[in-house]
Amino acid sequence: MTEGLGARAPKYHRVADALRREIRDGELAPGQRLPAETTLVERFRMSLPTIRQALGVLRAEGLIESRHGIGTFVKEQRRLQRRSRGRYGSARDHQKLLTHHLRHDIVFAGRGPVPSHIAEVMGIDPGTEVVIRRRHLFDKDTNQPEEIGASYLPVEVAGGTFLEEPTVVPKALFLCVEDLTGRHYTRARDQWIARMPTADESSILELPTGAPVMHVVHVARDEDGDVLEVSESIWPADRVIVIDDYPVEQEAEQPAAASEV
Amino acid sequence: MTEGLGARAPKYHRVADALRREIRDGELAPGQRLPAETTLVERFRMSLPTIRQALGVLRAEGLIESRHGIGTFVKEQRRLQRRSRGRYGSARDHQKLLTHHLRHDIVFAGRGPVPSHIAEVMGIDPGTEVVIRRRHLFDKDTNQPEEIGASYLPVEVAGGTFLEEPTVVPKALFLCVEDLTGRHYTRARDQWIARMPTADESSILELPTGAPVMHVVHVARDEDGDVLEVSESIWPADRVIVIDDYPVEQEAEQPAAASEV
DNA sequence: CAGTGGTCTAGACCACGCG
DNA sequence: GCGTGGTCTAGACCACTGC
């Protein structure tokens, strides 16, 4: 679409545009190193800050990544498939496949005050004591961090059980909860948000500057509507694609007026 | 978490941190204007470029927004609820509610070559001729752009029908297709990606610098597995939250080995 | 050590929105 | 006209990596 910016465009836009085209056309392949900033200064006959500003644009677009002392590289665009509604039922097979590629580090398990954004979906006061399990997930092959996860369980559900211990549980968390309580997971709600990472998330997930995260909050309830568990996952959004397969319901309803979605 | 950076941290980090805390603590409320850059130069006793670098960090985090000639403001964090699997069946009521807040502009309807990322999910060659309907959606109240949308239909499905005309269709698109073809939507697959916007998307959606987009590609097939329709939606990710409500399937399966997701 | 990107400065001029 | 943020420069020094 925007091809060949006019001479009126800011210099750093023209530089970003030229480099973006070289990346898109494969002249600069994924993984390849870009010319050094000083080289780009000579090539485009601009000042270093201007060149750096152009690189900042491409960095924010997720196209390149700079490594201090080494160079600037075209990013590899690999995305790990994640499955929506992937915790339960028939999707278990896929989930199992996925988790076998991942290593779990339990970074915390025990009681603590519930964070406010979780309290909100649980319908309790912020700071109420709950059982919290925090984990970091890494790719077994590359050792790259792939997820920051946490589960929040009401004390009535998980208090006094092995879920307060910092060990990997023997099976899917929801099966443990069902066994321990005799209550059944009946309905779930997922909330998806894409946002910019906090500084902590950025460092744990080793995110390049400007890369967003995908933040999923999962609420599970029993048949009475009581919350059994809230889980949240934070993924590096530039390395994730979420897949959702489902049957189309064949209900005959009155047609909506003018909805083109 | 990161509270009070040491004196070793870069200056622009310290400035960003101070302003971030003021925003989080409400001293700088959403919608409020920040002090002018020159004022911040005096307050923090740093150079203008350093102050601007700090503001760039907050801008990339989605916390502030600068308007040329006016000032820099704390962003309002309003998110429009979007429903996953919201096109069909019982979710129609919610979808109808949503679409009644939105105004549709059909920006194109007719035949054209299929883009490569759509061709891939349709299983056809890039550039094959298909029927394309492109739309922009705006909030009726605020007139703010909320979605860039497009539908791609095989010529066998929509060729020669009113779907090639640039008018709003009388009912949900999938109902039109079912009526016109006698074929039935049976299975669907959604693919979700969060990424940085292109320059075009950024300008159409009026995105502040550094704000990501949510990109959903929806594939619908009939009972034979043939593609009836591919739709894509691009939303400003900083103004969207996706909600997915669903029942938990109660299948008894063999437990997975060590999956804590 | 040399080469890379990261931080920081002082200062200039331009473009925009408003009164 | 004035205050705002946007663009651009020349140059300095630091920090990291690998040889």
UniProtKB/TrEMBL annotation, chains A, B:
Q: Which UniProt keywords apply?
A: DNA-binding, Transcription, Transcription regulation
Domain HTH gntR-type as annotated: residue spans: 9-77
Q: Name one Pfam family in it.
A: UTRA
Any single GO molecular-function term of the entry would be: DNA binding
Does the UniProt entry include the keyword Transcription regulation?
yes
Say yes or no: keyword Transcription present.
yes
Q: Name one GO biological process term.
A: negative regulation of DNA-templated transcription
SUPFAM superfamilies assigned to the protein according to its UniProt record, in alphabetical order: Chorismate lyase-like, Winged helix' DNA-binding domain
Stated name of the protein: GntR family transcriptional regulator
